[in-house]
Amino acid sequence: MTTEYEQMWKGLGLDLAAHDELLQVLGKGYQDIFLSQSDRPKGMDYFNFVMSEVHGLRVKELLDGKREGHKVVGSFCVFVPEEIVRAADATMVGLCTGAEFATEEVEKVLPRNTCALIKSAFGFKLGKVCPYIESADMIVGENTCDGKKKSYEVLDTLVPNLYVMDLPQKKSNEGRALLRAEYQKFKKAVEELTGVTIDAPRLKKGIEIVNNKRKAIQRLSELRKADPAPISGLDALLINQVFFYDDPIRFTDSVNKICDELEERVREGKGVFPKGRPRMLVSGCPMAVPNWKLPWIIETSGAVIVGEESCVGERGTRNQTDVSGSTLDELMEAIVDRYFKIDCAIFTPNPDRLEHIRQMSRDYRADGVIHYGLQFCQPYQIESLPVERSLEKSGIPTLRVDTDYSMEDVEQIKTRVEAFLERIGIPACSVCRCS
Ligand code: SF4
Ligand code: SF4
C-alpha cells in the first residue's frame, strides 16, 4: 500500500516516515488483536479490508469526491449531525483520536494532564500522520467538556478551517433552544462551505441515509443479546468504529450482510465463544480506532463484551431521527429532538445515562459492567462513582477502570479484570473452550 498511495500522502503534507511507522504499528496491532481471534464471521473480511485501506483507498475516495465537488467535514463528537452534512452532498468522517502520537510535540501546546483522546487528535495533527484531518474542508469542534473547549482554541492556531459549535450543558428548555440555534448555524455554515442550499427533500434523504446506518448497527446489537454471542465484542467494536469512516451506504450493506450471517449462527446456536461465557457491558468514554486495549484485555481474560454504552456504540446510535416531517423546519426540529437525547457525561445532572446503563445490562443479560474512564476525563471519571454505586446497589457488579492509551498498565488491568470475573463467580477455566 505504501508506494501506491505515497504521492497522495505527500500531497496531503504527511510526514511519510512517521506515517509509515504508524501504519506498521497499526498493522501489527490489528494482526495480534483481531486476526488472531477464532471463529470470526466471514462478513468480517469486509471490515478487515476497510482497516487495511483506512489510510489508503478510503482517503483516495474522499479526494476523488472532492475533485467532483463533494466536501469533507471532519468531526470529533457524535453531537455533530451527519444528516445535515449528507444533505449537502458532503461526507462526514470521524477524526483520529485513538492512539498516542507525537506526545512530546503535543505537550508543548497542551498540559500533560489532558485526556488521551484530545492529546491523540493533536498528536495526529502535529505528527502529520492523519490523512483525514488534512483532507477535511471543515473541522468541527464542539464545546462539550472543558478539555475540548479550551483545546479547540489551540487547535484553531494549527488548522485553517476549524468551526466550533456551542453545546448545552443542561437538558432544559434553554438547553434545547441553544442546540436548535447551533444546528441552524451549522446548517448555514455547511451550505456556505458546499454552495448547496439544504431544502426539505435533501434533508430527508440525509436523514434516511444516516438512519439506515444506525438501523443496521441496532440490528447487530440485537443479535449480540444471544448466548452464545455470535460475534466477539472486539469485532462489534470495530464495526462501530468503522461507522465513522466508511461510505454510509456501503457500510449499511456490509453490516446488514454480516447480520444475515449472525442470524444464521444464532438460529444454529453457534457462537464465537462457548455458551455461558461471562457477559460484560463496557460503559464510559468513547473508544476510537485503534483504541482496542481494554476490550482485548477483557476478551482474553475469559469474558465476552456484549454491548458498549459509549459514543462509539449505543450512546451514539441508540436513537433515530424522525423522518416523517415534510417541511425543513419539521425535519430540523426532528434532528434537534434526536440529538438532545444523547446522554453524554458533559450534561448536568445526567440521570438518563444511569438508566440506560441499567437498561442495557438487563437487555444484553450482562453479568457485570466495566466502566472505562480515560485519565483526566473529568465528566466520565466523576460520573463513574455514582454509576458504580447505583449499579452495585441494583445488584449489577461493576468495575471501574481508569486508563490511557499507553500499554504500560496492561498487566495491572488484566489482573483487576480477572479478579472481577472471579468476584462475580466466573470459574478460571472459562477462558478455554472446553464447555
Ligand atoms: S463522550 Fe460526549 S463529547 Fe465525547 S464524543 Fe460522546 S457526546 Fe461527544
Ligand atoms: S474523553 Fe472526556 S475529557 Fe476527553 S474529550 Fe471526551 S469528554 Fe472530554
Layout of strands and helices, then pairs:
Blueprint: H1 2-11, H2 16-35, H3 44-52, H4 57-67, E1 72-75, H5 82-87, E2 91-94, H6 103-109, H7 116-126, H8 131-135, E3 138-143, H9 146-155, E4 162-166, H10 173-194, H11 200-223, H12 233-242, H13 248-268, E5 279-284, H14 293-299, E6 304-309, H15 314-317, H16 328-340, H17 351-363, E7 368-374, H18 378-393, E8 398-403, H19 410-423
Parallel strand pairs: 1-2, 1-3, 3-4, 5-6, 5-7, 7-8
Helix pairs in contact: 3-12, 6-7, 10-16, 11-13, 11-16, 14-19
Bound molecules: iron/sulfur cluster (2 copies).
The site of one iron/sulfur cluster has 10 residues, from loops.
Overview of this protein structure:
The chain is α/β, with parallel strands linked by helices and 435 residues long. The chain is globular and about 60 Å long. The chain is 54% helix and 10% strand. The protein has a 4-stranded parallel beta sheet with strand order 2-1-3-4, with helices on both faces. Strands 6-5-7-8 form a 4-stranded parallel beta sheet, with helices on both faces. Helix 14 crosses helix 19 (410-423). It is built from 19 helices and 8 strands. It has helices spanning 2-11, 16-35, 44-52, 57-67, 82-87, 103-109, 116-126, 131-135, 146-155, 173-194, 200-223, 233-242, 248-268, 293-299, 314-317, 328-340, 351-363, 378-393, 410-423; strands spanning 72-75, 91-94, 138-143, 162-166, 279-284, 304-309, 368-374, 398-403. It binds iron/sulfur cluster (2 copies). Residues 115, 117-118, 144-145, 147-148, 285, 374, 377, 379-380 line the site of one iron/sulfur cluster. One iron/sulfur cluster (SF4) binds next to helix 7, helix 9 and helix 18.
